[in-house]
Amino acid sequence: MRVRRTLASLFLAAVGVAAAAFAVLPPTTSIVTSSVFARYLSLEFVVTPLARPFLCFLAIGAIAVAIWNLKRGRADSGIALAFFCAAMVGVLLAQSAFAFLLCWESMSLISILIVASEHERKSVRRAAFAYAFVSQLGALALAIGFAILAVHAGSGSFSAIAAAATSLAPAARVAATVAVLLGFGSKAGLVPLQFWLPRAHPAAPANASALLSGVMLEIALYALVLSCFTLVAPVGVIAGTLLFLSGLAGALVGGLAAAAESELKRLLAYSSIEHIGVMVSALGLAVCASVLGFPALATLALLAMLFHALNHTALKTLLFLASGTVVERMHHVTDLDRLRGLGSVALKRSAPWILVGCVAAASLPPSNAFVSEWLVLHGFIGATLSGNGALVAIGVLGLFALLLGGGLAAAAFLKLFGLAFAGEPTSSHERPERFDASVAALALLALLVLALGIFPLPVLHAMLAIAAGTIGAPAVRFDGTLTNAAHLATFAAIPVALALLYWWYALRLQRKQDGVWACGSSLPARASYSATALTKPLRRIFAFALFPERQRALFPAESSDFPTHVRYAVSTRDLTNEAARFVAALAQRFVRRLRIVQSGRMRAYIAYAAAAVALALVLGR
């Protein structure tokens, strides 16, 4: 068993090393070119500048998961994950329509099989079906879009398609744009096709979830960038606006759902929707700014998106691997209402690194995500100052949605770490955690998160050239902007360092500690705040935006404040039709607003009776 686990991990690590090697190859090095088929079915694999950062992202995720697999997870899971990563490498290197679709479908099918690895459970089968449905719908859309582009160009090569893109007929351009946005957006988890993410992640093993969220979503972003700036360029302001609005919706929906969620892996899945929304909103800004003649702003927005994609790979790989450690150590318990004090005994070695991941997921300093989201916000501020009406509107909406989504994400991860890892444990029988390969993987990812947050400039300058080349903009410099981002992250880390210093000093002092007074009785750990209770005010405020399927977790059935209209909504939880859920949500909102009629005031009821008598007298005449 140990030998098989080691060999599988080495195989996965070898794929990660190969991806890193491809990333440093000389520009436009051709790996494979085969023209034995017709010109529309040629296979071309080339290293392009845009693919290099994403190959690095893949290498980071694959190597970290391989190290974690040495101790955790199924012994043979590394083999399937290695083939999954190899298919993603093929997607990044593909430079023809047939090669791209072949690798894309291989990536999709392997990931579906990985999600369905525990198919004995009904919930896993349903999650795999939902993911397969969205995946194959997207693949069909991509096949149609690439067919339109290839027929127009007379070749399946991406170079020929890019050269002929400017002469596309308006109808063909619209059809191809819709097809690629639907195909790649469904894989990236864009609203309204994001529903497969919170279903697939709890069903998939933790190491697979780390690669699905930390790498595959970024591969879909790569495909979106490639389509918008190369294959269908110029896509137009309407397509950029659609990307922007879908990204903002994802940031808000993901942040709100993560704040309301109490299941660990579903919370992380909703957080991925929120972060992908931030990146896609930046991409939408880049597209609109490029079309409207603001190349510097477009370059900054695309740079922010690329850097945030790197940061998302590091932090989400860290957090999903941490969730796998929690699953194994706590015997498959992932409900935050049942997890307490993991950082004191059960996950004593992993807790500090998980705290770093939670800080990064909430985009707080001194993490890497703080810098990248600050750059995204700086792009939206630049849009508001551009003087163009469309960009000003985009900037204002972007600032509002990202700030609100960021606050909701901070509440979600405060709940996660504060309840599950801080405080007293519910059980004193857990064995202390030892330092092993799984802890080492978390530590390496956490150190990368901190390094990118404190010293981001080398990576940002390298990505700036790639962003400018992708946009087609002249050489631009953002020395002041990038330096200010780095300095802001450093200065914002000072209060954190002082707090840690004070905590260390307090531990050095010999002070007596007494328990919480509970009328002379001992206060058990289970009597402390639960995840559901902690976020109840937030869920009350945003109840209008939560779908009926979420209401069971929001208002438990045995609670005295469980409204009648919500009880009816709970009965719709098992509906698979999203349209029916939307109608139920609208009915619920309408009924909630009718509560003002039944106010409980006697004067109001007397007024109703008087009005009814007056109406009867009028009608009786």
Structure description:
There is one protein chain. The protein has 621 residues and is mainly alpha-helical. The protein folds into 3 domains: 232 residues, no CATH class; 271 residues, no CATH class; 82 residues, no CATH class. It contains 24 helices and 2 strands. A two-stranded antiparallel sheet has the order 1-2. A hairpin with an 8-residue loop joins strand 1 and strand 2. Helix 2 runs antiparallel to helix 3, helix 12 packs antiparallel against helix 13 and helix 14 packs antiparallel against helix 18. About 5% of the residues have low confidence.
Descriptive terms for the model:
621 residues, mainly alpha, 3 domains, two-stranded antiparallel ribbon, 24 helices, 2 strands, globular
How do you describe this structure in short?
With 621 residues, the protein is an all-alpha fold. It has three domains: 1-232, no CATH class; 236-506, no CATH class; 539-620, no CATH class. It is 70% helix and 1% strand.
